[in-house]
Amino acid sequence: MFYRKVLISLREWAESKHRKPLVLRGARQVGKTTIVEEFAKYFDDFLRLNLEKIADKTVFEANDTPEDVLSAIYLLKNKEKKQGRTLLFIDEIQVSKKAVALLRYFYEDLPDLYVIAAGSLLETLIDVQVSFPVGRVEYLALRPCSFSEFLGAIGENQIKEKLLAAELPDAIHSRVMKFFNEFVLVGGMPEVVAAYAENRDIVALRKIYDTLLSGYRDDVEKYANNKTERNVLRHILKNGWRHAGQRIKFECFAESNYKSREVGEAFRTLEKAMVLELCYPTTTTDLPPAPDLKKSPKLLWLDTGIVNYVAKNQLELFGTQDISEHWKGKIAEHIVGQELLAQNNSVLAQRNFWVRNAKNSQAEIDFVLQTDTQLLPIEVKAGHNAKIKSMHLFMEETKGDFAVRFWNNPMQKDTVELPSGKKYTLLNLPFYYAEVLEKMIEN
Questions:
Q1: Cα(212)–Cα(192) distance, rounded to whole angstroms?
Q2: How far is CA 233 from CA 144, 211, 238, in A?
Q3: Distance (Å, rounded) from C-alpha 182 to C-alpha 196?
Q4: Mind listing the domains of the chain with CATH numbers?
Q5: What is the number of other CB atoms lying within 10 angstroms of the CB of residue 286?
Q6: Cβ contact 379:390 at 8 Å
Q7: pLDDT digit string (tens) for 232-248?
Q8: What is the pLDDT of residues 174-212, one digit of tens each?
């Protein structure tokens, strides 16, 4: 176990006076069970149930009140109640609709009990098969490891602390970029990161990647409602990784014969499972950004390391000096998107990009981020400012005067003058600062 930032959010939840049962969301194998077990060390007593086990499920099916459920758990686990704080972890809660329904009563009847629920298939069932008590639970997202967590795992804690404080000196830029390129190659799945930290052998990670992929493919049987949906899901999980960071069309996706409706439904199922995200464009340059769901989305998977493994990019990326030179810059864009999402643990966090709403226009900004004052354009590009023409077009139209570019070089702040005479500040940041972009902007 290495340190995960989500522990901070879990502690804040536990200390809140208005705490409700917490539903921990995330794709399978992002470390939900491990992080709860680590968090349990801050409690005097820890009760864990896995509702895929018949005996654990029966605790809820055979009892009608939280008090009776809690007493039954102690009997089942052959434990005595302890003084102090107790954490109850209900894993695979989606197996029992009654357990889901009882969450609201834990909040109302046992407010001193700390309750966390999770489930590997939970996200695909929230809208259709189970009804979570509205206003009686809260949610927290757990995603793959960020770069700072990767640094902590490999023992580079001083660099990690400087990164999180947004205070890395330019003198160690090359060293930090070396670690970041390793992170791009390996990815952020916790088991993969832990294995790499132990032996620094990328080849030895193949079995873990294969196991992760097999797990996602095996879950297809549980996600799918019929044979056609099962086949489409399998097709996406087999062929979709090679389209990471690219705009896609549902119709005949990845050289298939599947229709737009079938592919769209399968993608939305995987999106609920947090295996991927369909990142839609906006055409506005000012707040608020409204995604245009009629335009082609960009496909972003949960982890760049898995993308590299499946798409066979590892050899090309091994020892690279600049990730923006590979795969038409899509890997650089994909990892920046992954790091932007790692800035917070909100389940509502999503990414958008910008396209110009003009006929025959090819102008596109990789990401746009909503701040308190403007819609912030973010480009992932190498080279001179003349290469970011889309950024210039965006800045001509927006009321904002600040933009960000991620690149391979040290931090640099430029003042750019547009043909209209308008000036804006372009903050050029090395890739490794994507995780702390909000702090960089504050500074």
A1: 10
A2: 22, 18, 9
A3: 10
A4: 6-141 (3.40.50.300), 207-442 (no CATH)
A5: 11
A6: yes
A7: 999 999 999 999 999 99
A8: 999 999 999 999 999 999 999 999 999 999 999 999 999
